[in-house]
Amino acid sequence: MEQHKNWVCIYKTSNRFEAEAVKGNLENAEIPCVMLNKQDSSYLSFGYVELHVPDSFVKQSNAILTDQLFDQ
């Protein structure tokens, strides 16, 4: 896999299930995506789950997120 140096946070939520759904949509569009779980392990209501993509995919990712939000 190609090494990406500049990763950008494009989505942040406190709901891990929601983050997994968004990540799946990005991966279906063949956008490399990583999930960073910054939630407290004892109290899952504290902290966020972040999705990061390479900076070259930010515009494409934002378009997918916008489409996903309006489809709900």
Rg calc? 12 Å
How many structurally independent domains? 1
User: How many separate helices?
Assistant: 2
Number of strands: 3
Strand count, sense and barrel status of the largest sheet are: 3 strands, antiparallel
Chain-averaged pLDDT:
86
Order of helices and strands: EHEEH
CATH architecture descriptor name: 2-Layer Sandwich
Indicate the CATH class: Alpha Beta
Helix content, binned percent: 25-40%
> Which strand order spans the largest sheet, edge to edge or round the barrel?
1-3-2
CATH superfamily: Hypothetical protein rpa1041
Which stretches are low in confidence, meaning pLDDT under 50 for 5 or more residues running? none
Termini, distance in Å? 33 Å
Determine the structural class based on helices, strands and strand pairing: alpha+beta
Instruction: Kindly estimate the percentage of residues that lie in beta strands according to DSSP.
Output: 15-25%
What is the CATH T-level topology? Alpha-Beta Plaits
Shape, per Cα inertia axes = globular
Features:
single chain, 72 residues, alpha+beta, Alpha-Beta Plaits, three-stranded antiparallel beta sheet, 2 helices, 3 strands
Structure explained in plain terms:
The chain is globular, with a radius of gyration of 12 Å. The protein has two helices and three strands. The relative contact order is 0.27. It has helices at 16-28, 58-71, and strands at residues 7-13, 34-37, 49-54. 38% of the residues lie in helices and 24% in strands. The longest helix is centred in the C-terminal third of the chain and has 14 residues, at 58-71. It has one domain (7-71): Hypothetical protein rpa1041 (Alpha-Beta Plaits). It has 72 residues and is of the alpha+beta class. The model has no long low-confidence stretch (mean pLDDT 86). Strands 1-3-2 form a three-stranded antiparallel sheet, with helices on one face.
